[in-house]
């Protein structure tokens, strides 16, 4: 289904200006500036602790920058957190998880109409979980749970889709299916920003990348970002950073 929402293709939809993002006074992402345009597929890559999830949460509106600015151009946004942040022991069925994608349009306690149930069933079918509506989420495999979360994003029908490590601990067949869905979203004019660790996958499927090491090492076309030199710089920075540093790096102090 093509997307008619503003802004038009190629327009800036996420803009970061000297954004420093963190927890209390502790900065996790320093002085980040850059833009994402509508219809782009952007990968956010970097070592553990380099600030990827923090950035995604800020773009999702769950955190505000300590300083600087993070602006979105009035987009409906869908955010898929890391699996580790989800409590699978919560007594819920698959359809409840997918229905959460509808809360902005229906309200949290709103009754779901037959049309909503049909939409949830269609999303589950599309994602290879047809008939799983009443399965308890604690009975799903990791890959099935990830598919259910993609179904939740599907029903949200969002223009901007934020995925935090969507392929963690997922088999190749499932990754292939989910990548096909991401490409379909792009063809529909949606914008996707995904935190990823597999650089070969990024090179093959994500034309743009941001390489983070608490600050931006490089942001642009993937071929110019994921160079041996940039990856070396990111590694060097990682070796130097203090895990619990409370300071904020000024641009002039960042690793060359
Ligand atoms: N809720 C929090 N409170 C305080 N510090 C946090 C919190 N969440 C993350 N941090 C810290 O912020 C820094 C960046 O963490 P973040 O989760 O953004 O990194 P990441 O690149 O996504 O890492 P990973 O690849 O391991 O998921 C880390 O030093 C982390 O310890």
From TrEMBL:
Keyword Aminoacyl-tRNA synthetase: no
GO MF annotations in UniProt: ATP binding
Ranges where the ABC transporter domain occurs: 14-239
Pfam families assigned to the protein according to its UniProt record, in alphabetical order: ABC_tran
Transmembrane segment boundaries: none
Keyword terms: ATP-binding, Ion transport, Nucleotide-binding, Transport, Zinc, Zinc transport
Family named by the database record: Belongs to the ABC transporter superfamily.
Protein name listed in UniProt: Zinc ABC transporter ATP-binding protein AztA
Organism the protein comes from: Paracoccus broussonetiae subsp. drimophilus
